[in-house]
Fold this protein.
Amino acid sequence: MKQETKDLILLNMIEGFGSRTFHVLIQKFGVPSNILGASEAELKNLEALKGDLHKRISRAASTIDLQAELDLIESEKVSIVTIFDQGYPENLRQIPDAPIALYVKGELCREDIVAVAVIGSRRASQYGLSASESLSAALVSCGLTVVSGMARGIDSAAHKGALKAGGRTIAILGSGLANIYPPENKGMAERISENGALISEFPMRAEPKRQNFPMRNRIISGLSLGVVVVEAARRSGALITANLALEQGREVFAVPGKINSLTSTGTHSLIKQGAKLINNVDDILEELAPQLEFLKKDLTKIPGGTRPSNIAMTSFEERLYKLLSDEPKHIDRLSSECDIAPGEMTNALMGLQIKALVKELPGKNYVAR
């Protein structure tokens, strides 16, 4: 490991030393080693340093056990990607408070530049969990990477959908990689590291403190071209992420919910403020099309009439899908062929639309994608 990387890990381990402080100090001192080598007197009067942070910086080499951290990084098979490295995600590098260093378990790929975040409430409804899982499966089936926070509820459903569809997914943690949170997601964390990456900006054993989660939210939005909010109460971390996404120039999408549900108040508020209401993955791809074209990313095409092997369907959805082709069929005809009420048919078609398997045309006509 390069000495510069070790210096950045040490700086990152200093309590109260954040990315904004780093970006100010690197302008003054040039390289990380000069920051660590500065005396208390040199640091004391710098406006960027509050309280006794100047003392913690000057004493870091003697008070922090860097070797223990390096040993844990090695034993847990974690890689460190710093802001000076070529492999640092380009989307994230653009934000003003980009993390100094990323702890990564798994692999970051160039293709992750076309990523979409799917986030929402920890106290999710069954509707929200289903929408999150289906949308995420559809996104990865179109060649995009799904980013989320691996929290309970909507986040976990997003990762689950991406994994079940055989796509890439990235989880941003609010704790260290040696301290997976929530603990019941340890198995999921392993699967994510094998099919994407676990990322944290916190030292290996960092606890999941409350203040860590708003910090990690800027990474979720920063890595992504757009953020999809599935369910969110009026005051929630998902709305914080949505606001960060707007500040970073990212697109914000919202899935509508029931008008009498508390977890719909936040998403409906976002829609009122201008977030794009989405019914299915096509709405996301349509909005992101200029960026995707600019990035020259070829999206995977799903052939009509043939079930993609990596998309989960119920037996009825599969039966319905086989009735469709690239020739439009009216909903009434489909209801007749399936011997099912139009209301139930509408729900089934909506499920297939969310999974990006079916497209609705004007006049309640449908085709397979």
Remarks:
- The CA atoms of residues 335 and 342 lie 6 Å apart.
- The first helix runs from residue 3 to 13.
